[in-house]
Amino acid sequence: MNVPFVALMEPKSSVFRPPGALREMFERVGATPDRRVMAYGGGSSAATADAFALTLLGHERVSVYDTFLWEWCADPALPMETG
Fold first, then answer.
1. Would you give the DSSP letter of residue 13?
2. pTM, two decimal places
3. Sequence-distant contacts of 71-79: CB under 8 A, at least 24 apart
4. Residues 6 or more apart in contact with residue 65 via CB below 8 angstroms
5. What are phi and psi of 70, to 5 degrees?
6. Any residues with CB less than 8 A from the CB of 64 and at least 6 apart, and which?
7. Span 13-55, pLDDT tens digits
8. What is the separation of C-alpha 53 from the centre of its chain, rounded to a whole number of angstroms?
9. Which of 46, 50, 64, 78 is the most exposed place for a label (fewest CB within 10 A)?
10. Contact 56, 16 (CB under 8 A)
């Protein structure tokens, strides 16, 4: 699932989009309040924007993978879906 952190912001003001728009973006990729969500990115700083937005929307099971995604990908024992 992918919701880039830049998509969370209004282009001209760089403030978070309204809650309804954020909720729709996350629900579109299956990130609903009943599921555990782990935000990740090239580094943890980008992922924190997604985690923050999810928390603002009331999600309680949100984590940030605090290392680079390529480290996760290097371990074939860890789950990974692509496509």
1. T
2. 0.78
3. 72/40
4. 38, 39, 40, 44, 47, 72
5. -60, -30
6. 38, 39, 40, 44, 47, 48, 51
7. 999 999 999 999 999 999 999 999 988 876 667 889 999 999 9
8. 8
9. 78
10. yes
Q: What is the DSSP string of 29-80?
A: TT--TTS-EEE--SSHHHHHHHHHHHHHTT-SSEEE--S-HHHHHT-TTS--
Do the bridges between strand 37-39 and strand 62-64 make them parallel or antiparallel, or are there none, so unpaired?
A: parallel
SS3 9: strand
Q: Give 64-83 pLDDT, tens digit per residue.
A: 887 777 777 888 898 877 76
56-76 burial by CB neighbour count: b if 16+ within 10 A, else e? ebebeebebbeeeeeeeeeee
